[in-house]
């Protein structure tokens, strides 16, 4: 039995395949007369965070995305607090100040605060709208007339919106929108069930249209959450316009195969960037998404500041603030870069598209970059390069913000089922070298050289002893982010194989290993254990890289779609009966 919506009617379909007269299988019920759970064949009740929601099979729900929802609740909660502080700050001074608050050391810099730009251009300054909030201790579940407005563009059952309403303090209104009538009915019911009438509103519409209708200066949202099936690309143009100045976009992408280089040409068509199939593809994916959001924003004299970007399980999630300001938009070309990736040894080099040159006084000039940074063949192994990108080449997180989210989660640990994972991942993120895009993976290095592996501590010590910085990336276990040039990595390996020789049968002419090991050693290498070789997140024993969270882990398929016409239903039912 399943339910199908047509116009304002719901068909309760009894698919009895042995019945020749299919019309007798349908029972027509007037939609408005009936509550969704009464006509659904099965309606599961799910408790997550403070919310309890009903899920019919026909509406999308993926339990392993609880981490995504927990993290989003934490990030938006912190964002709301930060906005409050920015307002206080703006009211007090235009300098960087320490704001005394429940987060003792929350330092907010006016540079990144939303409030200062574009006044008088008709762009609503949200801090003005919210100014009453700034002095209040906020509570979750309470409607604040001057609180934040949140749009969940693709809400399915509205679970996320219910959690926002019940768990994020300082909210005015949440629009839980979906383009499926049935889902919207379920959202309505979940609003009542969670006592959120008046704060959360169910809305039927195409998310892009809803955002276009709200792009006027006074209508923009403070937060927009986009959690689509696959790629969000068709919503980005509207999203960058419908978010207020300094507002927050929270975007999920589950099209990992496209973003990780399996379909570079598709990635180009969706994100305007060529993805590469490499060991650092997960971070590259995040950077492709960020450059894509930025390029959409630039068209409307806006620019973005990523506050947190995570690669999780099978998906990517970015949290990006959007600001207005044509002056800063000019910097965008220097924030993105092409990637040259050696097809032999995996060494990579970035080539920024634009560059900023200091000029007279405090002035700057913008110019195209000079390049390329690599020769036709790799200087280390002689193989050719693939070129990918453009990618976002500046920091993908705001480490101060990440620190505040960590504090928020530590203080509210019992509210997030996935708090251990959030804390582990965010701590690794805080340790990431912010100015070194992409990474090597040590297993990959050892495979290229065909040698016995070093321990992580030995490898890290060798780089630190040579005077370079090193960190992990949250995107991959055994990852190495460093400011050392690729040549130093190969120097480490050349030193290592002196005592751990590579089998002669591997040293075939034309292979990367043959070329790499034939080169002269450049840097002096020591494997003596360096005091900083163990990252603090490892020493503390945090849950840094979680194995697959569930047995049936992965992106869930679309919820079964409601068929459009009775004819479709009949055709489908008759197909089914033939299959039996
Ligand atoms: C992945 S689910 C959303 C899951 C939800 N955010 C959560 O956390 O459980 C995607 C939803 O987007 C809806 N959808 C698809 N295209 C849409 C569009 N153009 N506008 C609005 N909703 C859309 C689908 O009906 C589906 O319910
Ligand atoms: Zn190479």
UniProtKB/TrEMBL annotation:
Enzyme class: transferase
Entry's Gene Ontology BP terms: tRNA N2-guanine methylation
Stored CDD domains: AdoMet_MTases
UniProt keyword terms in alphabetical order: Methyltransferase, RNA-binding, S-adenosyl-L-methionine, Transferase, tRNA processing, tRNA-binding
Residue ranges of the region described as Disordered: 529-580
Database matches in Pfam families: TRM
PROSITE patterns found in the cross-reference section: SAM_MT_TRM1 (PS51626)
Signal peptide from the UniProt entry: none
Family: Belongs to the class I-like SAM-binding methyltransferase superfamily. Trm1 family.
Protein's recorded name: tRNA (guanine(26)-N(2))-dimethyltransferase
Organism whose genome encodes this protein: Pinctada imbricata
């Amino acid at each position: 039995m399943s339910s199908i919506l047509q116009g304002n009617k719901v068909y309760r379909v009894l698919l009895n395949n042995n019945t020749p007269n299919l019309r007798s299988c349908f029972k027509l019920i007037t939609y408005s007369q009936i509550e969704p759970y009464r006509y659904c064949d099965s309606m599961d009740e799910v408790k997550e965070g403070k919310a309890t929601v009903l899920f019919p099979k026909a509406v999308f729900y993926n339990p392993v995305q609880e981490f995504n929802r927990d993290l989003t609740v934490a990030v938006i909660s912190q964002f709301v607090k930060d906005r409050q502080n920015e307002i206080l700050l703006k009211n007090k001074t235009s300098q960087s100040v320490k704001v005394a608050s429940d987060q003792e050391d929350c330092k907010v810099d006016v540079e990144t605060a939303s409030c200062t730009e574009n006044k008088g251009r008709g762009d609503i300054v949200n801090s003005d709208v919210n100014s009453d909030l700034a002095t209040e201790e906020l509570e979750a579940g309470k409607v604040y007339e001057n609180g934040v407005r949140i749009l969940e563009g693709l809400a399915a059952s509205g679970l996320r919106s219910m959690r926002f309403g019940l768990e994020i303090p300082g909210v005015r209104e949440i629009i839980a929108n979906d383009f499926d009538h049935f889902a919207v009915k379920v959202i309505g019911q979940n609003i009542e069930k969670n006592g959120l009438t008046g704060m959360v509103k169910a809305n039927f519409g195409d998310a892009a249209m809803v955002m276009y209708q709200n792009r006027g200066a006074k209508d923009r949202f403070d937060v927009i959450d986009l959690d689509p099936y696959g790629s969000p690309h068709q919503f980005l143009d509207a999203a960058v316009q419908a978010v207020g100045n300094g507002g927050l976009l929270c975007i999920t992408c589950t099209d990992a195969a496209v973003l990780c280089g399996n379909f570079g040409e598709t990635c180009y068509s969706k994100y305007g960037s060529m993805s590469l199939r490499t060991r650092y593809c997960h971070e590259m994916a995040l950077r492709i998404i960020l450059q894509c959001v930025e390029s959409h924003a630039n068209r409307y004299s806006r620019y973005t500041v990523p506050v947190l970007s995570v690669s999780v399980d099978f998906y990517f999630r970015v949290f990006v603030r959007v600001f207005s300001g044509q002056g800063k938009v000019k910097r965008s070309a220097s924030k993105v870069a092409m990637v040259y990736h050696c097809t032999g040894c995996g060494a990579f080099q970035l080539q920024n598209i634009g560059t900023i040159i200091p000029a007279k006084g405090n002035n700057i000039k913008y110019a195209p970059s000079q390049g390329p940074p690599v020769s036709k063949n790799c200087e280390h192994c002689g193989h050719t390069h693939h070129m990918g990108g453009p990618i976002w080449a500046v920091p993908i997180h705001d480490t101060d913000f990440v620190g505040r989210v960590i504090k928020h989660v530590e203080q509210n640990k019992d509210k997030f089922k996935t708090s251990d994972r959030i804390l582990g991942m965010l701590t690794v993120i805080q340790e990431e070298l912010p100015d070194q895009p992409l990474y090597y993976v040590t297993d990959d290095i050892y495979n290229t050289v065909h040698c016995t592996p070093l321990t992580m501590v030995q490898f890290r010590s060798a780089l630190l002893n040579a005077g370079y910085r090193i960190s992990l990336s949250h995107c991959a276990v055994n990852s190495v982010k460093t400011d050392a040039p690729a040549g130093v990595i190969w120097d480490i390996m050349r030193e290592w194989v002196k005592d751990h020789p590579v089998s002669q049968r591997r040293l075939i002419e034309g292979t990367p290993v043959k070329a790499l090991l034939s080169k002269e050693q450049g840097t002096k290498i020591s494997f003596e254990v360096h005091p900083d070789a163990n990252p603090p997140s490892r020493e503390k024993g945090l849950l840094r890289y979680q194995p697959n969270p569930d047995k049936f882990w992965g992106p869930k398929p679309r919820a079964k779609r409601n068929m459009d016409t009775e004819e479709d239903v009949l055709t489908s039912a008759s197909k089914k009966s033939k299959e039996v």
